Prior knowledge:
Layout: E1 2-6, H1 14-25, E2 31-36, H2 39-52, E3 55-61, E4 66-71
Parallel strand pairs: 1-2
Antiparallel strand pairs: 2-4, 3-4
Amino acid sequence: MQYRLDLTGYICPLPLLMAKQVLDKLEKGGILTLFLNHTSAVTDFVSLCEQQGYQLISTENSADKFILTIKK
């Protein structure tokens, strides 16, 4: 299952909390793609993946946003 979550415009801790709710509902092996626009949020998601055992598949940086792909 793939899920996309646009969190641009939100300031931490909201992106982290909102994404965590989705990740909790995803089946193991599910993919979550996040769209963010704050550098600090990216750092928070790297930490979340390390702590929860999720796999950070990719991190992309475009002109005005970051795109993270996480596998549960």
